[in-house]
Amino acid sequence: MSEEKWTQVAVVHGDLQAELLRGLLEAQDIPVLLSQEGAGRALGLTFGPMGEIRILVPGHQLGRAQSILAAYEAGTFEDMAEDEDSEA
Prior knowledge:
By secondary structure, this protein is an alpha+beta fold.
């Protein structure tokens, strides 16, 4: 039995942005783990290295996750989702 390797797909600052991107990826059936330095989380930091939140996805879905996040950042995610719906 092999363990899934989780790979970093993005780094953001603040819980709101992290949860937004997690929701976006999970809505596309991509599991997500959020990772933040324990002290940063305990202190509620949202800036600097201790405020960074790493977004991790399974290694085999890294490329798809990167495409989704790139489309989201470019403002073309809806177009991408519509294209996938028309192909199904």
